[in-house]
Write a structure and sequence with these properties.
mainly alpha; Cytochrome Bc1 Complex, Chain D, domain 2; binds heme C
Length: about 375
């Protein structure tokens, strides 16, 4: 072989070895770091403080951790997420574990980077409802933060750096030592017999790994599976208001008559993306019920049955699978057993919270 063709072949091999293929499950890896926001211990710790701080919300009752609860795999166990008092959220709260490995953020992928995303919930009318210029001044008013920002960024706190620190903390949340990782690295005893059978169905007859593959078990693509609307919220005026508000600010012309979540269509305005949602990452999935963008399925059995019958009426993405009861059982064992990492122990940071009468009032209502 000529030297140039040999070099070309080597180049192709190097290129391919860095690629992720459909069907292939891969061990977890650290989050990539953006060049302009490198990860440091001090920055991650500062981000953690901010993540737990109720100062980031307008009425002082909510921090990021109010909805992304560390003890619940950074989700909240509810079908539709919590919201700012007197408003309703419209979607299920996503876990933040392995979030740094995701290409798109939010169910329809409207968020691009964790730095950009971090400011959305702070200013969102139905989440923390805080003016960003105002929050900057509030954080600047806390001497401990001023010292921290000086140390980490060599500068005073501002909204951009608040977002950078929050992003940094979230990038540090990576699944730890899951049985799947041990198995993929060669420890064949890491999975039970049933979980191995489930893995075979996952990558074979069940076709799950056509979309759920790679290190996070997501292809970062969007599909319209025609997941049913959540019947519990069909006529909920609060949720309808939030849906129409998000549609309006996303430039959706007919937002006033919108009765369902348009999904990816909000970003692309392309008909084929109507009600298409991102393939979610599946790690830690046993800890993040209920499922789907609207929390319509309460259990993994319901999710597996949904895929087994070929998804929602009229969808083009899935076909019926005809799984046996045994195959479904093992698939569930795989999802529960293989994908659960060790619990991430997050020590609550020592930052003095603002005294807030609303907070005590809210707590007394729970
Ligand atoms: C009131 C509840 C609530 C609060 C407070 C909240 N979130 Fe969320 N978060 C959600 C919900 C619900 C979603 C899913 C929204 C969607 O996809 O449209 C979400 C999604 C996200 C995502 C994208 C997840 C994914 O898989 O794409 C990130 C990142 C995130 N939140 C970070 C934060 C940070 C950082 C804070 C604090 C500054 C915060 N959130 C505060 C409820 C909340
Ligand atoms: C065509 C691509 C595709 C295939 C094939 C597929 N999924 Fe999914 N999966 C998705 C999408 C998209 C969603 C999110 C839908 C939504 O939020 O409305 C999803 C959601 C899920 C969820 C819910 C996760 C959560 O946190 O809400 C689980 C669990 C799941 N899939 C498991 C499976 C299993 C098991 C199989 C195989 C039997 C499978 N998937 C096959 C694309 C796919």
């Amino acid at each position: 072989m000529r030297r140039s063709s040999l070099l070309f072949l080597c180049g192709v091999l190097v290129f391919l070895s860095g690629q992720t293929f459909a069907g292939n499950l891969e061990p977890i890896k650290p989050s990539p770091e953006p060049i302009d926001n490198p990860q440091t211990y001090e920055k991650t710790e500062l981000g953690k403080k901010l993540f737990f701080d109720r100062r980031l919300s307008g009425d002082g009752t909510m921090s990021c951790a109010t909805c992304h609860i560390p003890d619940q795999a950074f989700a909240d166990g509810q079908d539709i997420g919590m919201s700012y008092p007197t408003t309703k959220n419209w979607r299920n709260t996503s876990t933040l574990i392995n979030i740094g490995l995701q290409k798109f953020l939010f169910y329809e992928g409207r968020g691009k980077s964790l730095e950009e995303q971090a400011l959305f919930p702070i200013m969102s009318a139905f989440e923390m409802n805080r003016n960003l210029d105002f929050v900057e001044e509030v954080i600047r008013g806390v001497p401990e933060y001023v010292a921290d920002f000086k140390k980490v960024f060599g500068a005073e706190p501002d909204k951009k750096k608040i977002a950078m620190a929050l992003a940094s903390f979230q990038r540090s949340l990576i699944s730890k030592n899951s049985p799947l990782d041990r198995y993929l690295k060669g420890d064949k005893k890491a999975l039970s017999k049933d979980a191995v059978k489930g893995l075979i169905t996952f990558t074979g007859k069940g076709k799950c790994a056509d979309c759920h593959y790679g290190a996070t078990l997501s292809d970062d693509k969007f599909y319209a599976l025609n997941v049913p609307e959540n019947p519990d919220f069909k006529d909920d005026a609060g949720i309808a208001a939030t849906r129409r508000f998000v549609a309006k600010i996303s430039g959706f012309e007919d937002y006033r008559t919108l009765n369902e979540d348009p999904g990816r269509y909000l970003v692309t305005k392309d008909k084929k993306d109507w009600r298409a949602f991102r393939t979610p990452a599946l790690r830690e999935v046993s800890k993040t019920a209920p499922y789907m963008h609207n929390g319509v399925f309460k259990t993994l059995d319901e999710v597996i049955d949904f895929f087994d019958r070929g998804g929602g009426a009229g969808n083009d993405a899935l076909k019926p699978l005809n799984l046996s009861a045994e195959e479904k059982k093992c698939l569930k064992t795989f999802l529960i057993e293989a994908l659960a990492g060790e619990d991430l122990v997050i020590k609550h940071p020592q930052i003095r919270q603002i005294p807030c009468p609303f907070y005590d009032y809210r707590k007394s209502m729970e």
